[in-house]
Amino acid sequence: MSEIDFEEEKKEVLKAYTAMLRAAKHAKKDAVTKKRIRKAFDVALEAHKTDRRKSGEPYIFHPIAVARICAEEIGLGATSIICALLHDTVEDTEITIEDIARDFGNKEALIIDGLTKISGVVDNNVSLQAENFKKILLTLSEDVRVILIKIADRLHNMRTIGSMRRDKQLKIASETLFLYAPLAHRLGLHSIKSELEDLSLKCQEPDGFAEIKSKLTKTQEVRTRFIRKFSSPIKQVLEEKGLKFEIKGRPKSIHSIWNKMSSKNVSFEEVYDLFAIRIIIDSNEESLEKSDCWQVYSVVTDFYQPNIERLRDWISAPKANGYESLHTTVMSPTGKWVEVQIRTRRMDDIAEKGFAAHWKYKEGGSESQFDIWISQVRELIESTDNNALELLDDFKLNLFTDEIYVFTPNGDMKSLPAGATTLDFAFSVHTQVGTNCLGAKVNNKLVPLSHQLKSGDQVEILTSKNQKPKEDWLSFVQTHKAKSNIKSALKDEKRKVAQKGKSILEKELKRIKISHENVNLQELQTYYKVPSELELFYQISLDKIDLSKLKEFEVRKGVLKPKRTIQKRVQRYFGQRKTVTSKPKKPILVIGDNMEKLDYTLANCCNPIPGDEVYGFITVTEGIKIHKTSCPNTVQLMSKYAYRIIKSSWIEEQEVAFLTGLKIIGIDDMGIVNNITQIISNELNVNMRSLSFDSNDGVFEGRVMVMVQDTSHLTNLIKKLNKVKGVRKIERVDS
Ligand code: MN
Questions:
Q1: Which one, 121, 378, 437, 578, has least CB within 10 Å?
Q2: 92 is catalytic
Q3: Chain centroid, CA 544 distance in Å
Q4: Residue 45 and residue 155 in one domain
């Protein structure tokens, strides 16, 4: 390691700090504020003076960078900058919340306290569990700056993730996709959301990411030419009208291209040219914005035919996260549909930076859509007795959906997620209206409860006192509010039934002479694989649980335990270091921090083979399962059960074969099947497990399952097969 030049380092730190101040010029209006920011910097600098980041640089660079993101990319003010500078002090150094309150004020102390608590929840804990998510949402309502600063913190950590350990990188990337990107989206931080997604993808799929990136660069020229040609007639007319504007192309993010490619199974070439054209107008005053936008719309559609069904007016009815814009899709000269987004500079700022930018435009505007959203979230969290996991699922559902706007008989507008039904509408009016809902009239026509609403519908709900929520209602309602209300009504019903199950269990325990005071219900839940006590009693009452299995339990040290506990089995996998009796060139997968050779099985959702990047997942009954990091289940497993993830990697090549699948697409040609099978079995001596070919209109699609040794063996096979006459495309398939 080379000598550290402390003087040089000090200069670099000061440089970073002044650059941050420059980016925050909107926030340091007066001398007092300036002084307070400087004080926060001095306190943080002193507190972190001995700390270094994983990369080796002084720790203080991190809080400075977070403060800069807050100021520059989110548009936050002085309070947030001060808190960002101090955000890690209470958690990592001697400084206390009381110190912050004394030196900076109560508001600052409250925010930093919130930040410390959240990071206690999401960073230190090995896993991001739903309960924690609930806590995070609750802090949202205390002061939203806590979440905004936390997002800035995460963004900087993602930007500098390279110096972390690989398994940590993967965990952080999963969490980012699972929680932070959706949160950023909901808060309207569009650029940050895209960057978080791209950085996560880069971490999880480095090759795929690099490939798309380089292809995007290579095709940039084609897009630029298209935009120039498309916009030139529009430009001319708008200039004649004396409007100030800017026209630019918005290519899709790498993450969204990747998603499209993998979900629709299409090639880059089929999606790369999907992009929107954005026209940003510098309106002279806010009152002219709407008419300016429609004027531009009129010019655009003078030249290009619009698709009427794809017109979106988010200026008259902004989205709940504050998004305002006019979208239309028009037919371009090349015969392709192109989305055109029309908005003013102010709208664009809000769309890219979110609500903080909104506050910049509307000083002291308290009745913002955002406040409404926050209060809705709070209401949901507090009203529900659902378990947190359900809450999370429902909430995520609502995070991603677009909105529709419908009307009450009096003409009041309500916004609901797209896909919402009449029953969702009923619950949005009032819980009682939902509970007693019989049906509805939509635009004066009678419709059932499950009828999906469209924007502009006028809805009148019909109720009856005798109506009660039904189980199947859950299958079609969309909103969290409806779901949680139905669930809690059903749960009340269930509780009654469960009461019976409880006494059945007590009787049975008495019969096999286990005193029910000794019974650990948690153990029984785990054993019978039911999520809650209530469910346990309920299923017993319905006779769905085999109580004869109780014989497999015993009372040990005063508690009920299965005779062979699950924990014991898992422990065995960890505890024992197996001696290797195998021949030198056997498959070697090492597991855990100590790189031990433990028993494992390969997950059949993604069929990993040596050479793949993998990790281990400790299952409850089947020991350690090995998944590819690119397995579709990875994000879910890592974010929900991070504590069960165990680092694994292949360390040596070997001669044992692994099963993998290939999909071959080509032009049907006499003898092609024969040629393919010859190559597989004769030339390369690969063992073929199964083979199926389909031919349709001269195009054939084949699926072959083969036994290969590792990825390089597989690559070689694919290369050879690609040379067969008629073969157009070969893909690896995992199941
Ligand atoms: Mn931090």
A1: 578
A2: yes
A3: 36
A4: yes
